[in-house]
TrEMBL record, chains A, B:
It catalyses: L-glutamyl-tRNA(Gln) + L-glutamine + ATP + H2O = L-glutaminyl-tRNA(Gln) + L-glutamate + ADP + phosphate + H(+). The active site is at 82, 158, 159, 235. This is Glutamyl-tRNA(Gln) amidotransferase subunit D. Residues 3-51 form the GatD N-terminal domain. It comes from Candidatus Methanocrinis alkalitolerans. InterPro entries: AsnA_fam, Asp/glu_Ase-like_sf, Asparaginase/glutaminase-like, Asparaginase/glutaminase_AS1, Asparaginase/glutaminase_AS2, Asparaginase_C, GatD, GatD_N. NCBIfam families: asnASE_I (TIGR00519), gatD_arch (TIGR02153), PRK04183.1 (NF003217). Belongs to the asparaginase 1 family. GatD subfamily. The keyword ATP-binding applies.
Length: 414, 414
């Protein structure tokens, strides 16, 4: 019988990895490797063996959370990622580093802002994120709000955080702030962004900004964080602390640090304005296709033959693809597979009415994504196909704003 | 017998379009439609009929170019695009608007800078660009330089201009400036960027910057243009005049307007430093795949089964994909299909040594693209596979800088 803290070896696809067995609630076997990083495995597709029994956790459990009268109640949901990866690399000791208790005990300023409850939803590398996990997370967020949370913080790996933020934005109508936060450098490294991001996230979770947002460093200094709308944000740098940027709109707000003043920069939904609603349907058989010169349209056939239900096409410029793709867009549309047009420029809006190619794309059934980011259009299409009764209805949704992801005119200064 | 200026109808794939027959040298039938925009057709796959005979061109041919003693000799090669689309929309009159003569007659300041020769290489919408056209263009640029051009300007549609710039950067070693230029708004519209961009391009074509560059507006005002390295530039907005930005490096230079002062911002190859060399091989069977959460790795099988020779994988963050892709990367690599890793963040560099997923990708044979843009990595892979005798040699080239597309460390301020 394996126990947490045991050193085990997991062999999958011929590759053997050793590490210490970690807590996990998603059914995955998670090990902490000697490198300090975690790896998760499907137990049904891996061989697991005991290397040696572990010692009892070497770190004492954190003290129960202090509760202060009069502070709002915030839930911290943990999904994995760098922000939750503080650990003793040398001993490999199993600690409850994913709990709210551990995060708070390492960042005592958080206690000035709220009283917290914490839950580990799962513990995955964010590049392994997929639609099913978004659904689990959306239900968990809804359940915390039902139980009285006045704000929810979701800690998340940065690689796919903006996809998750978009998914939660479409799945949840929230009366309270739902804040995704992560860190580009873990809290046990010099110049970690974990503490400032977490404190800023807590400030937003207790604010009047009742939307799904991403809160991360605004600059490479520790001077302020930005509050990005969940459908309008993109990781624009592989490693910088200020990698997250609002695209095609201004951030909702700035949070100054360390004084935590929130300066609102744009309109937002206010606390209590919407009633809680969780619509967690997602059609995972949707694909994002990036066009490139010479790309062959038969990729669409591959997707249609594989049972895909929707495609987002990242065209060039205003949303253009080569003329020989037009017929394929029509075939996909005729087969009931909506094709949404976005632009690989990322900034600006597609406009298929200016040039002839664009008008041909529209005539073939292509749906203009406006100024929606390609990745957000993908997640929206997954949601729209699962939450409507006809494809035509889903196509209609792609043209209107459901969660601030599309606007009738894009500000020219962003 | 159809003549230029005739009104014709072209029917292709069941769609009939009318317009005025335009000059074309690529074997394509090009018509100017009533909307003012051009469409090109393969004559072997279209039905062409005469609607009515045209009048002789209503615009007199431009006067022969004045030659001024002592000015350098610059060739203007035209490939189509908005910058070459000045036309009388109302009459549909055929003018030689694609020639150097016409461009210069509408922008007289150009005559202060150089003496020009012009050639129409082809006249396509830039979204129809593909590897074969890049090869034709590279040979044409080489031939102009051989004939004594002291600088070459390529006018190009903006949608795929940066892909073409990358392709020319790898195919041509040039002793003189090779400048790509376009416009976001055609010269007969208010606030066109065509004149300033063309004048700035001419200034760079007669400068000491002997590289393949893209010269476009630096701001939304007419104050300066930026000179971007051909392997480091990306169209980052669908419609703004300052859409083109250097990524992961500073622009090579600024060109102030209207005084045309060139301020060099970074190192560059100088005039005469390299001998002319054109290596125009390109392996067009290469694909760019953008990863997204839940994406299925069987896309690789589709490409390998379709005879593709190389794949660039646009991962999340530092270059990550879900764990179930690792095995597929190994299969592709084992099948002799190199897989190059880039990041959809665009800014920053992939680094597959930090996290476990990355190390698995490297162990499976994935090749780190450093801070090369995904689109540039694709074009480079096309070139590397065609200009080496083994796949291993091509893979080796992907890790080193051939035309400034990769650096050992990325500046943190770009």
């Amino acid at each position: 019988m394996l126990e947490l803290g045991d050193r085990i070896a997991v062999t999958k696809d011929g590759v053997r990895r050793e590490g210490v067995l970690m807590p996990s609630v998603s059914g995955t076997v998670v090990i902490k490797m000697d490198s300090g990083y975690n790896a998760g495995f499907d137990p049904e597709r891996s061989d697991v063996e005991l290397v040696r029994k572990g010692k009892a956790p070497m770190v004492p459990p954190p003290p129960p959370l202090l509760r202060r009268e009069g502070l709002p109640k915030v839930s911290i949901l943990s999904t994995g990622g760098t922000i939750a990866s503080k650990v003793d690399y040398r001993t490999g000791a199993v600690t409850s580093q994913f709990s709210a208790e551990e995060i708070i005990s390492s960042i005592p300023e958080l206690l000035e802002i709220a009283n917290y409850d914490g839950r580990v939803i799962y513990n995955i590398l964010s590049e392994n994120m997929k639609a099913e996990y978004w659904q689990v997370l959306a239900r968990a967020v809804g359940s915390e709000i039902e139980k009285g949370a006045e704000g929810v913080i979701v800690t998340h790996g940065t690689d796919t955080m903006t996809y998750t933020a978009a998914a939660l934005s479409f799945m949840i109508k929230t009366p309270v702030p739902v804040v995704l936060v992560g860190s580009q450098r873990s809290s046990d490294r010099p110049s970690s962004d974990a503490a400032m991001n977490a404190i800023s996230a807590a400030a937003v979770a207790t604010s009047d900004i009742a939307e799904v947002t991403v809160v991360m460093h605004g600059t490479t200094s520790d001077d302020f964080a930005l509050v990005h709308r969940g459908t309008r944000v993109r990781k624009m740098h592989t490693s910088r602390r200020d990698a997250f940027r609002s695209i095609n709109c201004h951030p909702i707000a700035k949070v100054s640090y360390p004084d935590r003043e929130i300066e609102v920069l744009g309109g937002h939904r206010r606390r209590g304005e919407a009633a809680l609603e969780v619509n967690d349907g997602l059609e995972s058989r949707c694909a994002l296709v990036k066009y490139f010169p010479g790309a062959k349209p038969d990729l669409f056939e591959h997707y249609i033959n594989s049972g895909y239900r929707g495609i987002v096409l990242e065209g060039t410029g205003l949303g253009h693809v080569a003329s020989d793709w037009i017929k394929t867009i029509k075939s996909a549309t005729d087969a009931g597979v909506p094709v949404v047009i976005a632009s690989q420029c990322l900034r600006g809006r597609v406009c298929d009415r200016v040039y002839d190619t664009g008008r041909d794309i529209l005539a073939a059934g292509g749906i203009e994504g406006g100024d929606t980011l390609p990745e957000v259009a993908l997640v929206k299409l997954m949601w729209a196909l699962a939450n409507t009764s006809t494809v035509e209805e889903a196509k209609g949704l792609m043209k209107v704003s459901l969660a601030g992801e599309i606007s009738s005119s894009t500000p020219t200064t962003v």
